[in-house]
Design goal:
The structure is a single chain. Helices cover 48% and strands 13% of the residues. The protein is of the alpha/beta class and 330 residues long. It has a single domain (9-326), classed as Metal-dependent hydrolases (TIM Barrel, Alpha-Beta Barrel), CATH 3.20.20.140. Strands 1-2-3-4-5-6-7-8 form an eight-stranded parallel β-sheet. Helix 10 links the parallel strand 5 (193-198) and strand 6. The relative contact order is 0.14.
Length: 330
């Protein structure tokens, strides 16, 4: 199944979508934040998907309680640290953790730039303790509009030496990528890589736009890319990677029948597609569960699963020497 001679990697993993339900509960008590229920077990459905949601926006609402309890920078640092621990406990050798500092800051009016610093501190503390390599990706939360994304980008770029890339996430359908061209010109000037959520709530044109105008070299989800053969040819030729997330695509309603997920077709085409979690705590899954799904529900062979692992390494925002050293993890 999983090839133990290769590193286990998760490239599409939201830090703010992976706040433990227990931590949300405890921080709410500590910070005197009222929750919708008095019992922890009854609280779980508020922060974890039980089956699937109507659409992406309904799915994203499950993340809201996690950030609502972040009342201090120490709270932000704690959840960042726990993300490293969770990634290590999941058996990962390398993870790229992405986060939206404005989303983490907004409920309790924290300073966005300070939230970035707190997350960086939490990651550093975690990496010291756990034997895992972590890089950070900053998110612009398009849901909050162009101006908020500009202030969020400024906060992230103030700490750009601690980031490997910038992402655009959130409400893809109502806030298309065309609104953020100027933002990603600044990302290019800062010499950061680009990964964009596209082809999830919107169609192939969203993916084209992310590649051509935002200069994405990786596409988050990219499920709808399958609808455009020319797009697939272009992605193959230019080695544009697809960060696939099986359980997430089912839970957001993007894919109604998981057995029909296009990941196998992407592999058959030779595309640089890899397998990831997305929001582990909200989804109630981890990376090994996704590989089991790929095998048992989509019928992927051991060779295809090995290819997914190789693709993750190739698509990672690591230097050639870092990739080589990651392969000597054993």
């Amino acid at each position: 199944m999983i090839n133990t001679k290769l590193p286990l990697i998760d490239l599409h993993r939201h830090l703010d979508g992976n706040i433990r339900p227990k931590t949300i509960w405890q921080l709410a008590q500590k910070n005197n934040i009222e929750l919708p229920t008095k019992e922890f077990e009854q609280f779980i459905p508020y922060v974890q998907i039980q089956n699937s949601e109507a659409d992406l926006l309904a799915f994203l609402k499950k993340l809201d309680w996690g950030v609502a309890v972040l009342k201090s920078l120490d709270d932000c640092k704690q959840v960042a640290f726990e993300n490293v621990e969770d990634a290590f406990n999941a058996g990962l050798h390398y993870a790229e953790l992405r986060f939206s500092p404005y989303y983490m800051a907004m409920a309790n009016n924290l300073n966005t730039q300070d939230v970035v610093a707190a997350v960086i501190d939490g990651i550093k503390a975690g990496v010291k303790l756990f034997n895992i390599k972590i890089n950070l990706i900053g998110i612009l939360s398009r849901t909050f509009g162009v101006d908020k994304c500009q202030s969020e980008l400024s906060a992230l770029l103030a700490h750009k030496e601690h980031l490997v890339a910038i992402d655009l996430a959130g409400d893809e359908y109502n806030y298309p990528g065309e609104l953020f061209i100027e933002h990603f010109k600044q990302v290019a000037q800062a010499d950061l890589q680009v990964t964009i959520h596209a082809g999830e709530a919107a169609g192939p044109l969203s993916v084209w736009q992310a590649i051509n105008e935002l200069k994405a070299t990786r596409i988050g989800h990219g499920v709808k890319s399958i609808e455009d053969e020319k797009l697939l040819d272009y992605m193959l030729k230019h080695e544009i990677a697809i960060e696939s997330c099986l359980t997430s695509n089912f839970q957001t309603g993007t894919i109604k029948d998981l057995s029909k997920h296009p990941i196998k077709q992407y592999l058959d085409k030779g595309l640089r597609v890899c397998l990831n979690t997305d929001d582990p705590a909200v989804q109630g899954i981890e990376i090994k569960h996704e590989f089991l799904l790929a095998r048992d529900t989509l019928g992927l062979t051991d060779n295809e699963i090995t290819q997914l692992q190789k693709n993750a390494l190739a698509a990672s925002f690591l230097s050639a020497s870092e990739k080589q050293s990651l392969c000597s993890f054993s």
